[in-house]
């Protein structure tokens, strides 16, 4: 396998230096270990397809599977998952369902994972994909969403019966951190403009602080234009003229809404991958975090989002060649309408799409063709 | 109570159809003055204040900033042209002043008149946080708890989605807009989102009543109860309780992120939506974007005693102010909503049909919907349509 070792002395260091989080070193004979959390709904089946595809493409990644049962009340399982991710540094996950019937003390497992690992930046790159019919064309927006605080602090109380206070926390430290991440990413990717999305006319202190931090960080990046927009105007503009947006940075809840709007614009939840980055860890999943309970185990789910998320993971691990090989195969398959799943208007099944991707890899992949 | 009800039914029987004509016959005497306080009938409808002065209603007008003043001038022009029996009491609110006298005067005027038409008042971000949003003060001061926005696709306007018809009911006084924030520890800001049982029950009740009145089949509650379990959980709980009292109307709920994604891909699945304040803000702006933009949709803020009408997306439009390019449709449709509220239905439908004729047949569009017309051209065209087709002027 040594001729396939892409790392090489200089190349590896270069790659490592470029990225803000360095991937864990490949300890075991050049193979990486990645935590895999199947989750609920369509998660398990799609992640099985990922494993199948990786095995087929000889990707040097081993998966350590950690199941998290969403119906169990104790937090042991999610803590085990967190420990596993701490050990491996990288994870690929499906969405874990949050049972609404359990009492409020039972926190969302996904949220616990994000906050324990301090995965402060959620990055979603929304691109119009060739071959998918959408009402808007040429969308290319990067959404950076603060992932740990804001409205998702899970701090609520009922002092007076019938009156609930829900706390939205904005801190200077986290706002500076996410703004710094956004500008660094914009610079890395050669983007021209960063837009902060907020509601500071109403939440003057909270979102005012966020906006203030963004402005401070923007001052240190004079080559990148910075502007801001109120969230309601942003969503209206997104629906009419999404091409005006480049990179967007925002607190947690607005990020949730805006990323779902953008996912809807480029074709739906089955197409967009998402990444959660922290200083030391990275977890990859679909951008809109759907469990897809209603379509679970019916072989109709769209595997594109999960497969693209696994490519993001390969990029993160430095296995760039494998990532681009799989990505090219996915895009080639997407451009053929007869291989679209139901959510983008076609009739194909999940397995057909994955088989087609594997055939594409076999046909054109640089690695396997050398062996023929 | 009984005498005032009797008087009201008498006044209703004396009005065969057109509001203003038999005004003198329903002129209220002293005894009926108390009926003004008893604002709701058993069906919960808001009774318009009686037309005291010779059959003419008085409505508070708050010009606001940006495009507000010019559009409201057009409204007044149009009303004068159409002989609408409404007099406007103009109350200016200066957004740059820090003391709250201006807005308090406006609130007093609205309390006196019962109905208002307003432009958006700008909130200056550079002033300290103690300087609250004037629009917000108005809404909470008058307890205008329901913001109703009816999003309809206009056939003459080019949009990516056709035939949208969604009613959005948004809680207007609490939620994230409570303006309660504090910085206990330097660098850590806590912003309080308040959800109360009373207000949630009230808005849910309003939503279902409106749905029933308008013959709608389904109400969808929009929330984020998977994360904000207590707050949005309470809201959802209240909606469910109220829903059980309306078995003819289907009730379902949807998480806000999924809602916005569905709105962008399949908006036709939605009928009536009810939600807390911030989600209402976002969802109403998405819907406004879907039907053609902020210049087309009117909004109403309704309370148990007062009603204030404005554009649905509450834009100041500073960048296009004074240039005669703003779209007057939203403001004019808002004034029609106001006329409906005052029970001047004939005038309202006359103006509304002229607006639709201009939009759909003449296709005179302003820049925001892709046309070349100026504001005055559009208003002139509407006036011409009224002149040629209006039921009132043709008789003269």
Summarize the structure.
Chain A: Pfam families: Iso_dh (PF00180). Two copies of one chain form a homodimer. The first copy, chain A, has helices spanning about 10-20, 45-55, 75-90, 110-115, 170-190, 205-220, 230-240, 250-265, 305-315, 320-335, 350-365, 365-370, and strands at about 30-35, 60-65, 90-95, 120-125, 140-145, 155-160, 165-170, 195-200, 225-230, 245-250, 275, 280-285.
Percent helix of chain A, as a range, is 25-40%
Largest interface: A-B, 59 and 58 residues
Q: What fraction strand of chain A?
A: 15-25%
Radius of gyration of chain A over alpha carbons? Answer: 21 Å
The overall strand count of chain A is: 12
Oligomer: homodimer
Number of DSSP helical runs of chain A? 12
Largest sheet of chain A: 10 strands, mixed
Mean pLDDT figure of chain A: 87
User: In order across it, which strands form the biggest sheet of chain A?
Assistant: 2-1-3-12-11-4-5-10-8-9
How far is the first residue's CA from the last residue's CA of chain A? 16 Å
Poorly predicted ranges of chain A:
1-20
Query: Helices and strands of chain A: which structural class?
Result: alpha/beta
Bulk shape of chain A: globular
